[in-house]
Amino acid sequence: MDFTFNQDQQMFTETLAALLAAELPADRIRQRWQSDSGIDAALAAQLVELGLPAMLVPEALGGLGLDATDFIQLAECCGRFALPEPAVEGALVAAPLLVDIIHGNPSAAPRLTALLEELMAGEAAVAVGHHLNPYVNFAGQADWFLLGHGNAVHLLPASEVAITAVKSVDPSRRLGELAWRPSAATLVADAELGAACWRATLNRGALGNAAQLLGLADAMVKQAVAYSADRQQFGKPIGVNQAVKHLLADCAVQIEFARAPVYRAAYTVAQAATRADWAVSHAKVVAGEAAQLAARNSIQVFGAMGYTWECDLQIWAKRGWVLDREWGDAGFHKNRVHEWLVQPNALIGPEYTFGRGDQPHAR
Amino acid sequence: MNLRSNAADEAFRREVASWLEQHLSGEFAQLRHRGGPGDEHSFVEERKAWERELARGGWTCIGWPQSHGGRGATIEQQVIFNEEYARAGGPGRIGHIGETLMGPTLIAYGSAEQQARYLPGIREGREFWCQGYSEPSAGSDLGNVKTRAELDADSGQWRINGQKVWTSWATESDYCFVIARTQPGSVGHKGLGFFMVALDQPGVTIRPIEQLTGSAEFNEVFFDDALCSAEDLIGGPEQGWQVAMALLGFERGVSTLGQQMLFQNELDQVVAAARDNGADRDPIIRQRIADAHIGLRIMRYNSMRMLAGGEDGSLSKEAMIYKLYWSSWHRNLGNLAMDVLGAEAQLLDGDGYQLSRLQGLFLYSRADTIYGGTNQIQRNLIAERALGMPREPRG
């Protein structure tokens, strides 16, 4: 078992981090809060240029042919910079869902392939409405919607979807509640194909959030560490106090112990997608817990400053609170782990903890 | 030990309940359940009028001695009043800083003239107070205050210069009690005075601080040659720290009872929300609701035990553990509320950044573990003062 990332993967992450470090200081995020769209078109275009939306699309369909292990650190990086643009959703949710349907339904393939190409080129935004998420982020900016009706998947242009804008506690988000009518013309995956598609989509969505939560948590702790060295009380930096050190050390422990499950879940999604439920759920739960603790303890370290609107920490904290509930909250994912464990043929035991449990044909 | 209420207490309970029932009506009916945490800015003028209505019925400052215009209510009666007030949905009390902090401090440490000058305004709901302790460089390290007070020999007035921060209710208050350095060059707890400063004067500027809740309950207060009469200093020019600490003792006293009743209302709301959306069928949510109830009862019993002790505001061990306990409990209640609401937890209603009561609870409670002594400072106090462990080196 080797958790290290290769040089290409690391370089891609560094490139994205450099771009976001330059283009996304906290005050730019605050500017987005004032804008209607909430999106910076120039940055969105740069993310397309980097190839983000094409990453998980097979080369045969014009993509980069990479997998979730190649993308996972990029998603984490988006969290680290609290990126408001729905780049993770586009790359890890919308594009792979289109690919799944293209593979499963040849009759819909031509138009979906054309849409996928537009998505990869940054010419069309595709939003996905999963039944676990009653509110769709950036619905107002989407050109197309992939929506669930029962297990079936329908594709609708924005003109056929009524969007009621609703506000999120995270001012970086632009949520919409959708009303729409399914028809034979909009159907792109029937209930049988759709069930498989939605299951995989849920896992990819939850994985994307888990990775972002990890990045958010990490960024909050870094800000708190810097503040603890800066802020003086009793004639010394507050960070010299054990009571303050331990708050952040606890976060570091949770974050690092969440990291491995998140990377493992990415591996399972890439290698054995049909059996990824438990791995993704494990990752989502622990990454969510790490982000919650990091938000709580970082605010505590900032003291009253951390409670102000002016303090940038709220950008990360509020995103963490929101992403933790999207694509299934902690209760939902703990239940999935539980259900997997009590299956009579669950692959548990020492021989599955490492190694064989990840093999696609182990059962 | 006697945990039973007597007939006189029950009669008192009926009296309170019936008065509130009659008076939280008409123009005041709209104030029911308003003005709590996250909702501080609702109906401010109406709530000030309500304070005066309470005063006319003799229901402000009931714990003050009769000689100072209070009822001399027993601890049990004060608990009953707070319970019935919360049960009736009485609005958040704007007068609480005056009633529970400034008043008791004046009664314990003020001169007869000061008591005569300030107690009636508090009791009658006419004058409102805020607290000027924290400064940008004096948070946990309160002894590091830099605000200066200089006595002008000609006018006999103190001139105050400096800045206070995190001052709740400053924009709505008439007076601020301020600790300021009277001895140039003094450090720490020495050389401080405790001043009662009128806010409506040219030398005072108040600037609200927007919080992550989108509202602004706290303020910065700037003093630029603000004037304070020599008669408005409590204790001597170097006794400010003792007065300030005694006041904090009152903060952890009876004033906590009203807060617990507010917590009870919030917990009731969380339970109601869980019933509404079916979250109460989730066994984990059920257990967390039970835990929240248990925690609230513990607070209640413990504060009764704590209040049965000294009445001079001095800290007992029981008082020291209280802040840590309630702030952590309240923060967890906020988490529970959000988990009960599920996906809806993130939705905002209305214009601007308008939080629902439960969202307000969640975000507002983030400050609970910080203000009035952070949880870390509380643990140090418990370890060093209650347990007698060696003190952490300072400075």
TrEMBL record, chain A:
Keyword Flavoprotein: yes
Pfam families given in the database record: Acyl-CoA_dh_1, Acyl-CoA_dh_N
Co-factor requirement: FAD
One MF annotation (Gene Ontology) recorded for this entry: acyl-CoA dehydrogenase activity
Domain Acyl-CoA dehydrogenase/oxidase C-terminal: from-to ranges: 198-315
Keywords assigned: FAD, Flavoprotein, Oxidoreductase
All residue ranges annotated as the Acyl-CoA dehydrogenase/oxidase N-terminal domain in the record: 7-94
Presence of the UniProt keyword tRNA processing in the record: no
Record-given protein name: Acyl-CoA dehydrogenase
Top-level taxon: Bacteria
Similarity annotation: Belongs to the acyl-CoA dehydrogenase family.
From TrEMBL, chain B:
Pfam families (UniProt xref): Acyl-CoA_dh_1, Acyl-CoA_dh_M, Acyl-CoA_dh_N
Coiled coil: none
An example Gene Ontology molecular-function term: oxidoreductase activity, acting on the CH-CH group of donors
InterPro entries, alphabetized: Acyl-CoA_Oxase/DH_mid-dom (IPR006091), Acyl-CoA_Oxase/DH_mid-dom_sf (IPR046373), AcylCo_DH-like_C (IPR036250), AcylCo_DH/oxidase_C (IPR009075), AcylCoA_DH/ox_N (IPR013786), AcylCoA_DH/ox_N_sf (IPR037069), AcylCoA_DH/oxidase_NM_dom_sf (IPR009100), Mycobact_Acyl-CoA_DH (IPR052161)
Superkingdom of the source species: Bacteria
Acyl-CoA dehydrogenase/oxidase C-terminal domain mapped to chain residues: 239-386
Domain Acyl-CoA oxidase/dehydrogenase middle residue range list: 130-225
GO CC annotation: plasma membrane
UniProt keywords, alphabetically: FAD, Flavoprotein, Oxidoreductase
TM ranges: none
Domain Acyl-CoA dehydrogenase/oxidase N-terminal: 9-125
Necessary cofactors: FAD
Similarity annotation: Belongs to the acyl-CoA dehydrogenase family.
Protein name per Swiss-Prot or TrEMBL: Acyl-CoA dehydrogenase
Organism name: Gammaproteobacteria bacterium LSUCC0057
